[in-house]
Design goal:
Number of helices: 8
Structural class: alpha/beta
Strand order of the largest sheet: 3-2-1-4-5-6-7
CATH class: Alpha Beta
Largest sheet: 7 strands, parallel
């Protein structure tokens, strides 16, 4: 873990807020960390790979932002709780959180999916997110008092997803957890939303595009904007939902998919 500076008070969409980002070593999470810092938040990044976290934190600090990292394993509830407690130790409060951590498994019809792969994707994408979100809610209640959480779902959760059965099911579970948390904690001033990205050019998708270019091209053809998103574009939607400008938005699963679900 690195040292820290005090949260900044400059102008920005998330000015003065303390933000925890789970799964922030690369892809959407790393892009969100950079964006949130530019928008004035003091960011704490969490993931399993320290070298990736250190690189992103270094970039943010070099740009004048406030950033730290903590190690967290979404398959380990104690690790998740420790990460949240470290945010409180660093900044004395938690205002907003992005739960981006998750994994995919090889595309295959459901009857070919192994029990091991099913258990793995469930433990990270469903159980890990549940433990992260509940720990964050407890921390927000105990410190800032009110705040916001965004969970990263998938456009695959919104319909049948051939070849992605176990993965898509975990993301549909994320949508349900999001809606329930929004209802339970809205009266306390804690907003909980989800975003459902479409095809996004993360490292995983870039590798898929190299291995099966026709598959990604087909998705782009089905997308009205005729292209995939960059991680920064997904991060922008999350930043808005976490900001005070979305103060009357909760319980939503927002597709950020270039119109794929239209």
């Amino acid at each position: 873990m690195t040292g820290t500076k005090a949260p900044g008070n400059g102008a920005g969409l998330l000015a003065g807020k303390v933000a925890l980002l789970m799964g922030a070593g690369r892809g959407i999470g790393a892009s969100a960390a950079r964006l949130f810092a530019r928008e004035g938040a003091a960011v704490v990044l969490a993931a399993r790979t320290e070298s990736e976290l250190a690189d992103v934190v270094g970039e943010i600090r070099d740009g004048g932002g406030t950033a730290d990292y903590v190690l967290a394993d979404l398959t380990d509830g104690g690790s998740i709780q420790a990460a949240v407690e470290n945010v409180i130790r660093l900044h004395a409060r938690l205002d907003v959180a992005l739960n981006n951590g998750g994994i995919s498994i090889p595309h295959t019809p459901m009857v070919n999916a192994t029990e091991q792969k099913f258990d793995l994707v469930t433990s990270v994408n469903y159980r890990g997110l549940f433990l992260s979100m509940t720990a964050e809610i407890r921390a927000i209640r105990a410190t800032a008092g009110s705040g916001a959480i965004v969970n990263v779902s998938s456009v695959g959760s919104l319909r049948g997803a051939p070849g992605l059965g176990p993965y898509a099911a975990t993301k549909r579970a994320v949508n349900s957890l999001t809606e329930t948390a929004a209802v339970e904690y809205g009266p306390e001033g804690i907003r909980v939303n989800a975003i459902a990205p479409g095809t996004t050019m993360t490292g995983v998708i870039r590798q898929w595009a190299d291995d099966e270019p026709a598959a990604v091209e087909r998705l782009n053809t089905l997308t009205p904007l005729r292209r995939a998103a960059e991680p920064d574009e997904i991060a922008e939607a999350a930043a808005w939902l976490l900001s005070d400008r979305a103060s009357f938005v909760t319980g939503v699963c927002l597709p950020v998919d270039g119109g794929l679900r239209a």
